[in-house]
Amino acid sequence: MLFRAWSAEVYCTPLKGASIRLDFCLGLMRPLVEGGPVVQLLEALCRQLEDFLGRWERFVAEKRAEHFYLNYYTAEQLVYLGLELGRETPSDAALTMLSFIKGNCTPRDVSEACRGPSGRANTHQERTVVEDLPLLPFSESRLVDKLRVIMKCSMTCMRVFLPHCLDLEALGHCLAHLARMAGPPVQRELSHGLQEGQPNLIVCGHSEVLPAALAIYMQTPHQPLPTYDEVLICTPETTFEEVALLLRRCLTPGSQGLGVYSLLYADQLSYEVACRAEALFRRLCTQPHREHYRLVMVCDCEREHCYLPSAFSQHKVLVTPQAPLKDIQAYLAHHFRVPEETPSAASVFQDRMCVGIVASERAGVGNNGC
User: Are the CB atoms for 52 and 41 separated by under 8 Å?
Assistant: First the structure.
């Protein structure tokens, strides 16, 4: 988060040589300056920033392991939410993002959820950093050593640097509070043939992937339809972060419900993403309290040779989950029908369906069908 607030400038003059100036744009501290050969200074600075990036990624991974609901959002989204929830009134965009955890989230909901974590008193450690920060970096002579001091302080006391931004700890507590306000969590049952506590690889025809996924979730027909938090439809453009978040939601303790997490068309993932996803899965499985997860990978039988189907071939399910077409249609109709007491534009459609198909035999005509 701190990287959003700083800029670097290089000054060169024929007589005085060159210098590098780092300005974090924070009132607590002056810009950091060091003179000398620019190439060597920049090389050392880049190495220090790369080292800090690795430390920061490990720090974020630790927080994701501690706070389940951080895994609903990408790193960029977490920065945005931290800034927005630190404001008096969060933006509509932030409320929409939070609605994935608590439907129809309001500013009042956010205020209640954030009251505890954002309103706590400064700790002794934070007060010490506030008092000492203006002098701490200047106890070091080299620019990279000064930067190291600041980075270390920023990871342990982020609120000192950005007082109007929730840190990951506070944000994690806030999101968990919103989840508790959301009502009964999802409670699903695994369909016959799938096992808890191990990956379930389903290999079927390309056109059978989505019906197989529906058959899995139809096992508990009165539970809500799965959304992006449980299902990821993979393509060659799917990023590692997208896959990693689903795996973390599946394998991180802290969920209030019992979800079934599915990677559909997992064979479509690029080789690099698939390799990193398998490595993350193995690593997450070594952590405690991971024995009750529900993970399903549904792949195209024509691409069974691809990385993920090959890597998890020992967990191949012998029978593909199936359901009759009329049962699938009834299941979807049940969830897509808007209740009579709910005002909705769906009232103009057949059976108050909120999802329909507009089709025509030729372009520009637009005959309706549902």
Answer: no
- Looking up tokens 């506070």, which residue turns up? 170
Element (H or E) spanning 251, and its range? Answer: helix 240-251
Please enumerate in sequence order all residues whose Cβ is within 8 A of that of 195, keeping only pairs 6 or more positions apart, or say none.
Answer: none
Query: In b/e form, how buried is each residue of 255-267, taking b as 16+ CB within 10 angstroms?
Result: beebbbbbbbbbb
Distance of CA 320 to the CA centre of its chain: 30
**Sheet hosting strand 7-13, strand order edge to edge:** 7-13, 17-23, 32-35
d(CA 242, CA 115): 30
Other Cβ atoms within 10 Å of 175 Cβ, number: 26
Cβ-based neighbours of 235, under 8 Å, separated by 6 or more: 265, 268
* Distance between CA atoms of residues 263 and 319, nearest Å: 18
Q: How far apart are CA 57 and CA 62, in angstroms?
A: 9
Distance CA 78, CA 71 (A): 9
Per-residue pLDDT of the chain (370 residues; tens, 9 = 90+): 444 444 445 454 444 557 777 777 766 667 777 787 888 888 888 898 899 889 889 999 999 999 999 999 999 999 999 999 988 899 999 999 999 999 999 999 999 998 854 444 445 555 575 555 555 555 677 878 888 877 877 777 777 777 788 989 999 999 999 999 998 899 999 988 999 999 999 999 999 999 999 999 999 999 999 999 999 999 999 999 999 999 999 999 888 889 999 999 999 999 999 999 999 999 999 887 777 899 999 999 999 999 999 999 999 999 999 999 999 999 999 998 888 777 877 777 778 888 877 777 777 665 554 4
- Total residue count of the chain as it appears in this document: 370
Phi and psi torsions of 281, nearest 5°: -60, -45
Q: Quick one: 282 exposed, middle or buried, by C-beta within 10 A (0-12, 13-18, 19+)?
A: exposed
Burial-class residue 165 by CB neighbours within 10 Å (0-12, 13-18, 19+): buried
Domains of the chain (ranges, CATH numbers):
2-181 (no CATH), 199-325 (3.40.50.300), 337-369 (no CATH)
